Amino acid sequence: MRGNYKFLLLALLIAFASCSFTSKTFDNPDKDKLLIQLITYVLDQGHFDPQDINDAFSANVFEDYLNQLDPFKRYFYESDIKEFEAYKNQLDDQIKSYDVTFFNLTHERLLKRIKESEALYAEILEKPFDFTKREEYSADYEVLTYVKNKREMKERWRQQLKFSTIANYDDAISQRDTDLEANSLPERVFSPKNEKSKSDESKSLKDLEKEAREATKRSLDELYDFIDDRQRKDWFAVYINAIVEEFDPHTFYFAPEDKDRFDVAMSGNFEGIGARLQKRMDAVMVNEIISGGPAWRANELEVGDQILKVRQEDEEEPVNIVGMRLDDAIKLIKGPKGTTVVLTLKKVDGTIEDISITRDIVELEETYAKSSTVEKDGKTYGVINLPKFYVDFTSYDNRNAASDIKKEIIRLKEQGMEGLVLDLRNNGGGSLQTVVDIVGLFIEEGPVVQVKTTGEPKEVLSDKDSSIIWDGPLVVMVNELSASASEILAAAMQDYKRAIVIGSKQTYGKGTVQNVLDLNRMVRNNSNGDMGALKFTTQKFYRINGGSTQLEGVKSDVVVPDRYSYINIGEKDQENPLPWDKIDAVDYEFWGNYFDYDATIEKSKARMAANEQLKLIDANAQWVKKIRDREVYSLNYEEYKKAMELNEEEAKRFEKLSEYKTDLTFNSLPYEITLMEQDSVLKEKRKRWHESLAKDVYIEEALNVLNDLKMTYAIKNNLADVKN
Length: 724
Description:
alpha+beta, seven-stranded mixed beta sheet, six-stranded antiparallel beta sheet, globular, disordered C terminus
């Protein structure tokens, strides 16, 4: 595609400003003010949807910034907030004049309140908690008000600490029971109701309660050690991001250290466990397992797991990372190849367990396309999994997603493929050009996607190659985590009626493009040190029918429930997303070579509605949402324990989900079988993948759809049909 006009213009302006005499200079000696000046200029000139920095903008920054500083409302008092509110509608003026008065006030006050809270939690944890008392704790922090005085602050901390400690207390009791059973001692139940009747057990309970409090204090001590390590620049980055995130959820300021990590991630390998994490309120959540990495090989960590604690192999006590900054948590989890880390997890069903993972070099090899054949009803079908739309930005002629998909299709045709499943589940996107080229493998020629830059004519990206590599039945699989480039491909296939899209109610809904700008390029004779980088939104995608993929994503032709059906993980659930809109459609022609396209969709919907496995998956998804949305907890141990046991009992209902198995057998292609003879890791990867496919009810239905789709002509299924 042609370049982003506005971004190119901005780059030229930056080049001019940094090497020529101009009235627009960026050389403020105060680094904080210089950073605000740089960022506001870039966003005003280069963002797809520049915001008016006015009183409304100011109020939003004010609220979001304070929520990030004190999400649990356990530092600031109501009097602090009233003092801060004098600036609520003035931040726009401060931003425009590069004034950091508000930041300085809040930063100094925060450090003071953190210091006070450190003494407060230590005082509270000196005294035992009464777990026989009937009281409840609410984790709905958004509805909490700020406390008025020290007495209320102490009570807030007491409840939060008791909530943390009751979990430790339950762990200690469970461990004690396990140890007793392991030592073949008579079974004894340790619970508060035993206290009055059995003095020896009462003493044991007191010891366990004390140990639980000590564990809570150690976790907080470690958290505060991390807080103490944070420098002023770290807190200032929080303020800057409260400003830039008002533009949209994908605009983000990378402080120098963050930019370094971003560069490492882009390089394609790193040392760690092979999982991508995200922060949700106080929780560190797993949002992706990298295929082939240590976590993938261990096969115990899952997407949606919350990491509660981290312990190194040479340490006795774990570090509690709940409430910890994500960057700090990642530092604990990552580590040198060959070392072991122990993670305490809260699984999506609410159960707690420890797992050990030996770190290794994580190669992103499994971002590459892979394929398999499968036999069904006497026919051979192909499955291609594409985890990402990858490309070598130094040269498009090098390996990329489009060229690899083309190779896999040709190889599958050699095996007599009669229908193809393209699996884009969990594919977060990537190179736009590869999408255009992949769509071109399935259509003769025509438009693929429209791209819009503010103030510029729309650009239509088209396939101009009249050859078709695969003209047979096609199904595209998606889910809620299929985003960006995945949505463009699925939308094009749907608009052309070239493929049937099977998956979640809708895909992620990210219809925007971002660029990363090194801010150091904008400053001449910089004596302020590294300024970091800014990622900001520059363009928006539109389908060939004119609709944006932003927010609405792509709605599947056949909707199937999955584990994340009721969890808020899409673009529409983020803060400040850009809106959905529509532009003019472009001319294109339906594929028209299926004579039963709509009938096939209706057949599939009927099968899905009657499928018992999918009904159970839907029930599980609703239960997972209920567990995740729970906000009120009993601080009475008997009630707490009953709730936990009920949770575990309910979880047993869904154990049969993992027992589901189709009668399908998946096989690697001949070229991979040859490679596997020399590569045991590849062999294990493919074995794991094939086993997963054989238990996959969605793949099973995709193959049913391929079986139903009828063509108006015989598939051109030999290599002579492929025009290169």
